[in-house]
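Good day; I would like, with your permission, to put a structural problem before you. A protein sequence and the structure tokens that stand for its backbone fold form the material at issue. I would ask you to consider whether the tokens describe a fold that such a sequence might reasonably adopt. I set the record out below, with my sincere thanks for your time.
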Amino acid sequence: MQATISIEKERSKEEFPAVLSLREKLAYGLGDVGSNFLFDTGQLFLLKYFTDVVGLNPMVAGGVFLVAKIWDAFADVGVGTWIDNRRRIGPRGRFRPFMLWAALPLGILMVSNFMIPNVSITAQEIWAYVSYIVFGTVYSISNVAFGSMQPAMTRNSVERSQLSAWRNMGSNMGNLLTTVGFIPIVLLLPTQRIGYTVAAVVFAILGVACQLISYRNIKENYHDEARDNAAAEVHSVGRKELLKDVLRSYRSVFRNKPLLVLCLANLFTFSAYNVKLAVQFYFAQYVLHDITIVSYMTFVTMGFAILGSAMIPVFSRRLGKKQTYIMACMIWAISDGIGYFLTNSGWTFAFFTSVSYFGNGLITGLNWALISDVVDYGEWKTHVRSEGIVYSSYTYFRKLSLAAAGSIPGFILAFIGYVPNHEQTAFALEGIRGLVFLYPVAGALLTMVLMWFYPITERKYTDIMLDLQQRRNKSQLDRADEKA
């Protein structure tokens, strides 16, 4: 009798998926505000700190990002494997504890990136490599768990799209406040070295606070009972069976075509977006001759990115997520393509960047909705549900894109003969302009081609979820019969 009641409760949850409260959605978005305070500070300003404040060679500075982000990519996969194969799941859930454990260390490590001491150049390079690599590892622990949690919060497709929109608005808000606030804090202090450190401390405190508030106000409404039971059985059998289970999960990733398409799409779009973010400060300082223009115009440009995120449910309902994604890439490519030829002032830079960020806001927000869909697709296709491994595979490619975004500007700056805090040659200025505009155009166009091969339409996803629901109901009935 108890088994029947339990089954009916679970069935009710499947037929009427959890509708999240506004508080939960706000808290989930706030989690990404905190993540971006901690992450974007390094992604936006660390290259300039390395080259213009510490005095590292741009090639060396680019190498820090390349090595650290490739390491992070593998760390993401390892963290995803760890999360998926945890056996003792406490009352906090499978994913939430990692947000709690990683928050404070993440803040401390972020500040350490901007506290390179005035010692020998070799010691400074070692400090830069070690601090950024360790920071990235801890960030993987926090962020993989945070992203993997979305499918456990709701199985309602509409709610997932809204949750993704909230997350992306949080991401854009974190990026906006970091971009607007960091340099003014630096300029308030007597030296750039002190200014960068103080600004990092401010955003570290804010980032940790946001993550802890998010942790306290979100919860995991669903768990995979079959996976938990399997994990318990593996624990009794031994490590050999555990290894087989892990390998089975990885094999399922390579059979997940939508995941592979999404991973490659992010490799192009995320690297393009972050290259533009990193190089815009060089562009403003040496081409437009006013570095503070980035802080002012960011209110407008990131406002358009947030608007793009907010419009995701509207466009998704009318066009579908796939067609909205392709349309967003087209907007981005056209805007930056025209901007390359016409940008010659702060106003034109703000205008073309705003339009391109609108397209990027759509893309970034859709990514979080699509990754939840491909988790369900993977379970439907392979009978293996692995949120952690799927999400970490996705972030693996995002980290590779960040490796490109951090290293390519450094390498190009070295190639074009960039000299910190001096007037640049015409060749150097043209190289900086190309990084800001042409690199994003190439990324957007390549992504448009890739997304034509993305197979999950709205109708396809509905069929997948109905099939999965039938499987789960049958599995619960079978387990109830076995217990009886």
User: Anything to note?
Assistant: The mean pLDDT is 85. The domain at 2-483 is CATH 1.20.1250.20 (Growth Hormone; Chain: A;). Residues 346-382 form the longest helix (37 residues).
